[in-house]
């Protein structure tokens, strides 16, 4: 098993040290020995070492809580789920600890650098019904973004195109003449000097859709580290938040039929928190 694990795991994993600490276990929780015979079609479990995570500044406001739902107002830079280099500093891990809800889980996604309204269910048994609302596009979502004002741009407008995220690229690409899979209604709500607050109403939920659509109009969002160019920003640099806010979210509850509406406490421009 030791020989196989050294081949299977990247060099940065200290396989010998983990064997010495009895950190490799089988499905029953028994320690796996370095010289144990290799057994195909079995699982070996271990906990990887986590990096020291810088605390993400900003309050994680609980906007609503009941038997089925927890709705929060997420600050920028806080991951939604534990993933990659962000584990402790994620909405799910924070809420499971702070609220004592071991099964709390999100029913939709917000990028780590996006702020605003995020809906989670308190238990697994509720998650499917609410996820289906998002999959069926039965949730009315309103975002607001801060971006430059272009006097020559005719607004309001609806952007329709086909976006793809290709492996190895940070940016999404537009596929010309392909059937639209990304649709956003865009209107200018308020002018703030050379910038404006834009109301964005997406009908679809493609990766980077809102950011790519504003960039395609020639008005990229303030604070975007990917559009128009990919910037080398340290993961623990919290000084320049993306000016994108999931500001409103509404739907008809699939369990009791009530109209649910949630609104972020945050406003644009977003300033560094903490």
Distinctive features:
two-stranded antiparallel sheet, 2 domains, alpha+beta, 15% helix, 274 residues, Pseudouridine synthase
Which residues sit in consecutive blocks of at least 5 with pLDDT less than 50?
Answer: none
How would you classify the helix and strand content by structural class?
Answer: alpha+beta
**In CATH terms, what is the fold-level topology of the largest domain?**
Pseudouridine synthase
N- and C-termini, Cα separation: 47 Å
Number of strands: 12
Shape: globular
CATH 2nd-level architecture of the largest domain: 2-Layer Sandwich
- By CATH reckoning, the class of the largest domain would read Alpha Beta
* Elements, N to C (H/E): HHEEHEEHEEEEEEHEE
What is the count of DSSP helices, taking H or I runs of 4+ residues? 5
Main pleated-sheet profile: 10 strands, mixed
Provide the residue-averaged pLDDT: 94
Give the name of the CATH superfamily of the largest domain: Pseudouridine synthase
Give the strand content. Answer: 25-35%
Radius of gyration: 22 Å
Percentage of residues in helical conformation: 10-25%
């Amino acid at each position: 098993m030791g020989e196989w694990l050294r081949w299977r795991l990247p060099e940065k994993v200290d396989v010998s040290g983990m064997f010495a600490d009895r950190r490799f276990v089988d499905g029953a929780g028994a320690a796996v020995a370095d010289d144990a015979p290799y057994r195909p079609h079995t699982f070996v479990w271990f906990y990887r070492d986590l990096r020291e995570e810088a605390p993400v500044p900003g309050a994680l406001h609980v906007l609503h809580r009941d038997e089925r739902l927890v709705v929060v107002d997420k600050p920028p830079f806080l991951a939604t789920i534990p993933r990659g280099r962000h584990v402790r500093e994620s909405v799910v891990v924070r809420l499971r600890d702070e609220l004592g809800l071991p099964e709390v889980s999100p029913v939709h996604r917000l990028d780590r650098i996006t702020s605003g309204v995020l809906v989670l269910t308190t238990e697994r048994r509720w998650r499917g019904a609410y996820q289906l609302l998002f999959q069926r596009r039965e949730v009315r979502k309103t975002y607001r973004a801060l971006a430059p004002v272009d006097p020559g741009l005719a607004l309001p407008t609806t952007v329709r195109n086909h976006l793809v995220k290709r492996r190895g690229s940070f940016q999404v690409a537009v596929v010309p003449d392909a059937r639209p899979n990304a649709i956003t209604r865009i209107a200018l709500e308020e002018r703030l000097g050379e910038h404006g607050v834009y109301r964005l109403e997406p009908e679809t939920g493609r990766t980077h859709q809102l950011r790519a659509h504003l960039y395609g109009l020639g008005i990229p969002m303030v604070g975007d580290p990917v559009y128009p160019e990919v910037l080398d920003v340290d993961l623990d640099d919290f000084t320049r938040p993306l000016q994108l806010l999931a500001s409103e979210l509404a739907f008809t509850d699939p369990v009791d039929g009530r109209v649910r509406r949630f609104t972020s406490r945050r406003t644009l421009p977003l300033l560094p928190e903490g």
